Amino acid sequence: MAQTALITGASSGIGEAFARALAKPGNTLILVARSKAKLEALAKKLRADHGIAVEVIAADLSQAGCGPRLAAEVAQRGLRVDLLVNNAGFGSAGAFVKEEPARDAEMINLNVSAVVELAHAFLPAMLERGQGGILNVASVAGFQPTPHMAIYGATKAFVLSFSESLWAETRGRGVKVTALCPGPVDTPFFEATGNPELRKAVPKGMMMDADRVVAQALAALEAGRPVVVPGASNKLVTWAPRLLPRRWMTLASAAVMGR
Ligand SMILES: NC(=O)c1ccc[n+]([C@@H]2O[C@H](COP(=O)([O-])OP(=O)(O)OC[C@H]3O[C@@H](n4cnc5c(N)ncnc54)[C@H](OP(=O)(O)O)[C@@H]3O)[C@@H](O)[C@H]2O)c1
Fold it and tell me: For residue 139, which of 243, 7, 234 has the smallest C-alpha distance?
């Protein structure tokens, strides 16, 4: 049955791939990000290609109160949200002491606080209806500390833990919650970290295509799985911290991230 999906960070990369994938079966889409022109262009294409309704909401989700504001805007447009895709996020690469405190705060607000605010905004109604889904985009970076991307890894550890808790709390109540934990995905994410060398540090064959990642995420949500890690080598990366001492993992991670 076609539903309404709200996708944050739909103007680029994985979010745009979610929009394309969810448009195919005829869902109504609500696309959210700051870049209004990019969202409008994508909405126009999806309406033309699939004959679906697509709403665009330009919003900065790093601002406190983004959840209630977005919920009010959605209600004002006479829509409800059946599937929430909390995808907007960014990382910053480099030594912690060289990071701008304001940029760190922006990252925590977007990667963590907005995810919580949007869950507060839309989950209660899903539970009342006994139907719905939340897909939170975490990362393999959430499974162990990530020195040289210290704040980013910590935000994704939050998203992973939070999503698993929501999965358990909503289980059997008609609402599915899944944390998507990708490894490297070929998107402008790397350039946004401020370290153009980061993309080159990705081992050959590990970079995944956003459409493939999204297909696995939607299948996992459908199957009611709490966590999905696309790609065999990424799965291995997330198993290592369960087998090795955390100190070793932290130092290994520092060696990889500090390259
Ligand atoms: N690519 C990877 O290797 C990788 C791996 C693991 C996890 N992830 C996660 O995947 C998610 C999507 O990233 P991506 O790879 O698709 O990167 P991307 O292409 O840079 O997309 C990031 C999206 O977030 C939006 N965004 C950024 N700041 C925002 C703000 N303040 N308010 C609202 N929207 C904002 C951007 O749109 P505007 O600039 O228009 O606002 C854009 O649509 C992120 O959560 C990222 O951490 C990525």
Answer: 234
Residue 2: per-residue pLDDT: 65
Question: How many domains does the chain divide into?
Answer: 1
pTM: 0.97
Q: In 10 A of CB 179, how many CB atoms?
A: 28
Report whether residue 89 contacts ligand 1, using a CB cutoff of 6 Å: yes
CA distance 91 to 151: 8
Range 190-213 average pLDDT: 91
Any residues with CB less than 8 A from the CB of 93 and at least 6 apart, and which?
148, 149, 152, 193, 194, 195, 198, 257
Which CATH number goes with the domain that contains 77? 3.40.50.720
Measure the CA–CA gap between 193 and 90, rounded to whole angstroms: 7
Q: Which atom of ligand 1 is nearest to the CA of 34?
A: 41
201 has pLDDT over 90: no
* Residue where the block lists tokens 């059997």: 172
Give, for 160, the enclosing helix (H) or strand (E).
Answer: helix 150-170
Q: Give residue 94's domain range.
A: 4-257
Average pLDDT, the chain: 96
Ligand 1 center–CA 9 separation, angstroms: 5
